[in-house]
Specification:
0% of the residues lie in helices and 56% in strands. By secondary structure, the protein is mainly β. The N and C termini lie far apart (40 Å).
């Protein structure tokens, strides 16, 4: 099992920045890729960004491309999401997730951290 714990959420004004962290523990040697998702009130959870754990290849949702940067620190088993130029529509609970190489789904999820962007 892999345990994930997000941190770094909070309240920020539009145009501001936040950096989210996700600490992974447990059987992290099985992790192939990790991702950030978000869920706004009354909306479905949506993909934000993903990165491969070994090679660092990243992908982003169009809505955050150019504003958010995903990264990882393998030595610390920690995933990050640097969020710049935040907009009120970025307000959501942000979740990190992890998947094995053989899985098409993200099997492990954190509890989430709230990000609120005021206008």
């Amino acid at each position: 099992q892999v345990q994930l714990a997000e941190s770094g959420g909070g309240l920020v004004q539009a145009g501001g920045s936040l950096r989210l962290s996700c600490a992974a523990s447990g059987r992290t040697s099985n992790v192939h890729r990790m991702a950030w998702f978000r869920q706004a009130p009354g909306k479905e959870r949506e993909f934000v960004s993903t990165i491969t754990w070994s090679g660092g290849r990243a992908a982003y949702a169009d809505s955050v491309k150019g504003r958010f940067t995903i990264s990882r620190d393998n030595a610390k088993n920690t995933l990050y999401l640097q969020m710049n130029s935040l907009k009120p529509e970025d307000t959501a609970v942000y979740y990190c997730a992890a998947a094995r190489a053989t899985s098409s789904n993200y099997e492990h999820w954190g509890q989430g951290t709230q990000v609120t962007v005021s206008s």
